[in-house]
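Late entry, written up from scratch paper. The run itself happened at the end of the previous shift, but nothing got recorded in the book at the time, so transcribing now.
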Amino acid sequence: MRSATLSPDGRHIAAILFDGLNYGLILVDTETLAVRKLRKGARFSKGFWSYLKAPRDVIWADNDVLAVNLGYDAESMDLEGKKLRTLGESVVGRVGFGAASGEVIVTKNAHKHKVARCNARTGACTTFWHPPGEPLRYAFDKQGNLRAITLMDSALFKDATTVSNWYKPADKPTWTKLAEFRIDEDFWVPAYVPDEPDRLVIASRQGRDTRALFDYDTVERRQVEMLAGHPTQDILSYDGIEQATFDYVATSGMRREQVWFQRDRAAMQRQIDVLLPDRVNILSGDPRRAVLVRSYGDVDPGTWYYFDIAKKSLVTVGKARTSIDPARMRPMEVMSYKAADGLTIPAYLTRPTALTASATSATSATSAPMIVLIHGGPLARDHWGWDAEVQLLANRGYLVFQPQFRGSSGFGRRFEEAGFGEWGKAMQDDITDGVRHLVAQGIADPQRICIVGASYGGYAALWGLVKTPELYRCGISFAGVTDIGHLFSDWNDLRFDKASRQLMKRHIGDSSMSATLFDPVSPLRHAARIEAPVLLMHGREDERVPIAHGRRMRDALEASGKKVTWVVFNEEGHGLYYQHSQVAYFEAMLDFLGKHLPVAAPAAAPAATTVLE
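Output as recorded:
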């Protein structure tokens, strides 16, 4: 089960399933738990392109009408799976909150940036006009009218992208620009439009370190009272885009937390958390009648439960990965350590079965071989929860360390900005300090550590082999950046090309100073300094970090007589979409680790192997 949603009246659950090859849509009767299959994916051709038209997301338009996203278009259907209407390209959400309205918000034409309110039964739509620009965020009132929007606009002949926020009163046809920012500034976005005139609720970090929800006065054009915020954690999500007042927020600390503002919902959350402890439990539905619970944790990919209030029964509806046995999974610990400059760095640590949390004495008998797993972005982060790669490595006997180095998102503005301009420098030092901390604690074996990552994480893995060769016995990079200067010229995401370059200049540095800023910290320029064996993997169709990055690094390593293994995924881009590619990735990783970082005991490294394209 990939996702599930409860009907407004609580009588049915619609769920998306995936069997590894195809998607399907089912309907569950909450009274009898009987399951009805509504739709499965089928392959279609559109011009020269062939694609899988399959249910990927479902929204209740009404108690007896579903709106389903099918990849390239969206349809409404009844509870028998019969198509009612074609709605547009994608369904965004349902109009109104609580009571079903039968209307949904859809995007009609992505190239022309049209958004509309549509009747899911009749297909009749009202298309909304908004000022020119690329929409980044929409906000509607509870009647389903587009009332606020964030737009991105790039200058024609230079890298100068701006972001503007606009508002339209309910009784006026014209839009008013409320604020404008450079793309690389920390701009606010609209969250929802209340019933009160001249009032907007926004998500903002203006004047504070972490993102919070604020009232905004659209007449005076200023941020006013804070409605919800946390001193050390960004608000990750919130519900309330269609109603007068939001009902919950979720914070983005080391473990997701959902905070309810309605008393009955808060009480229900406490009750569910007692029944399902040490998990993240996400509730939807009516706490006076029935709720659907998505419950997940570090050892469980996710289970959906239906809780009937009157019957006081909690029944399992479906599981995310039915073959996973939580009893065989390893818990993900939350930890922190001090960087060299005193900054506190949060991290996750997953221990293999043989090494328990109590085994922390500094002896080789209790230390374990460690994988340092670096997230991409770098303006991104890892999350507490079940992770296939982490669990696979822990299952094979490896300690898995995931540092949330400076520059990671979700921990406030200052923590993010501390990573600006620090590729290969303070950001890398944070990783190094974490490794040395675990070695000093006797948790990690200093002679058996491998650094692994994808995208930015791939860059950090390679640069770790250059900067601190004494720490690592091997390194693995998937889609890693090998030359930072080339990243500016190689980026092929045309839709966001200008904005991306402007953001990269702010976050990484000025590309006109490549020789000064980037060459000293680019792995390609220092391949000869790498001593450990390297596994390089790349998607042939990667447009974000083109495969040339990997090829150049492979050639440089081979020219210096280094041990390098090269794997190419022909059908993939900047990630692994196909299941057979994911399996091949893990097989290549485990084979490489088995040769260069065996769990049982250190061994002499074998001769290098090369996988030909």
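The CA atoms of residues 60 and 587 lie 41 Å apart.
(Scratch paper discarded after transcription.)
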